[in-house]
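For homework, think about our next protein:
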Amino acid sequence: MRPATDFAIESLHATANAIFTGALAACSIESAFDRRLRFEGNVLHRLMPDGSGPDDINLASYKRIFVIALGKAAGPMLETLLDRMHRRKGLRGICCTSPLPKNRNWRFRYFEGSHPLPNEDSFEAARAALALLRKAKKDTLIFFLISGGGSAMFDLPLDPEIGLDDTRAFHQALLGSGAPINEINTLRKHFSAVKGGRLAIAAPEALKVSLLLPDVPLRELDALSSGPTSPDHSTVADARALIARYGLESRFPAPVREFFARDDLPESPGNKVWRPPFFPRPARTGAAGVRRVTSAASMSGEADAFRDSVFEILLSSHDLVENARMLAARAGYHVAVDNSCDDWDYADAARFLLDRFHALRRRHPRLCLISGGEVTVTLGPSPGAGGRNQQFALACALELAKYPGEHLTVLSAGSDGIDGNSQAAGAIADPTTTARAKAFGFDPQASLAAFNACPLFTAIGDSVVTGPTGHNLRDLRLLIADPA
């Protein structure tokens, strides 16, 4: 007969999984869309205007409507928009996501970009989008559907001589740097021909409507997919300071090092003095579509490109956390929310949240502590399989081993269904995790040090596996205590 503790722990695992999957399921793109926008005939009404752009848009005023959808939620976002908008003349677009949606519209070109490192489709999608946007005039309305993951899925170097292998090495160095996402994306903005506002200035005369599903802190919305339609306030000097701070120069391939070292490296478009791109040669056929802005292209023209812009946040990490809070409260737990460790190193976040968890459960024995946002990892030279969520869960497991027999569990998982270079969304830990892992021949401390948590959690059956969710609302961490 199995100990009662085993069944209690299994029940807590099921509860944590139910809260995570239930919170994610409640984040409906369709309902979020309908809370923000409504189509009535030829008029698009913004139901919650924020001061950016017009409150109502008459679609009959535009001869052509373009849609650029990119990121992990591009498929469902595009499907929802097309369902609400019905058939429109002059409708064309680009969709870059992974996996590709089963139902595809013949008016769109689809590209299966890769994450966390770009692939050839990432380049082709960016080239196709730039080519389409250059056809936009004052009579063109453009919808940008932007979700997390677009920084890798949809990319093209500003320097057309930098190829895919070097671009992938650039992204890999950033992912292993330990830098928070806003700093990683600052470097991506200055590297890319389609980030840091460069999609917006590719169609300066058109009205642009950006519908956003952020996987970044809301105070840093221009970091979402590295801000392809947002003005960028970071500078070349900022980018170079980050390279120095994280020792990235030696980790970049030679062409990327040379790119960031150039004296005439152009600023990304935004509230800065614009300098023309340094590339004097024409781009090769099919190569990077760097917009050839000359010194005659003044800051006023650039400002116009952003002034004719609408930004709508459809869903965010706050919605995911709030849904989890309601589900946990409905299950009878005392609920506390603490998002203060957002963008912290995973080990620091684990220590902080566990200290808070133990302090709270002394007063509230039946407790669910919820934390949204993301933690960071600094990868060694040969990391194993896993991601930040499994790394966080394993760090928690080592500490929870000090509480044998207690009914405690920690779940950490990504809302996109993918954690790092693994097929898991995350993992669940409890006081028995390390003992069970050792019984399978694993050394939990060694797995943590090697950033190789995925094989351990897979072996003991405690991986959280959802498959791609069509969302990317950052990560969710649940710390649950239930003495019953």
